[in-house]
Amino acid sequence: MTPDACFFHSTLANGLTIEVRDLSRRYFGDYHKVVLEVTCRLPLRSALFAGDGDPEQALRAARAALGDEARTQMRLERMGVPGASLEAVRSALWDSFTRTTLRYMQRDDYPLRLVRSLVAKRRQTRPPLRPVP
């Protein structure tokens, strides 16, 4: 597989777009680091906040914190993989992800939970330092 190749791309029924890139590389002799980078993107729309008291206000607050889309990344990694086992390890990582995490991401309530979690994390981070006048 070529570096940065798209391994998987899909838009789920709940609106979440999943993109998986293969970032695997050889690092010593015939040993490799298998890396699948999973990117989850969700366009922010008022329909996402339909259960809130004021969906438009919730949308404005989410966009103020996150921009036009919620985005998160995770990496599935395995080190020390011999060249002959690359495909088997890549498949095992992907199968594990689809059996566990992907099923959770397909739930109808996952997009709103993701947005709320990302907004809360954004609020917890310190603002950038500003010079004292």
Into which percentage range does the β-strand content fall? 25-35%
End-to-end CA span = 54 Å
> What is the β-strand count?
5
Low-confidence stretches: none
Q: Strand count, sense and closure of the main sheet?
A: 5 strands, antiparallel
Going by helix content, strand content and strand pairing, the class is alpha+beta
Mean pLDDT across the residues is 90
Please give the radius of gyration in angstroms: 19 Å
Share in helix:
25-40%
Topology order in helix (H) and strand (E) letters: EEEEHEHHH
Shape: flat
The total of helices stands at 4
Describe this structure in words.
It is a single chain. α1 crosses α4 (110-124). The protein is built from four helices and five strands, in the order ββββαβααα. The chain has 133 residues and is of the alpha+beta class. It starts with a strand and ends in a 9-residue tail after the last helix. Strands 1, 2, 3, 4 and 5 form a five-stranded antiparallel beta sheet that branches.
List descriptors.
133 residues, alpha+beta, 5-stranded antiparallel β-sheet, 5 strands
List the helices and strands and how they pair.
Blueprint lengths: L4 E7 L5 E6 L2 E4 L2 E13 L11 H12 L2 E14 L3 H14 L1 H5 L4 H15 L9
Antiparallel strand pairs: 1-2, 2-4, 3-4, 4-5
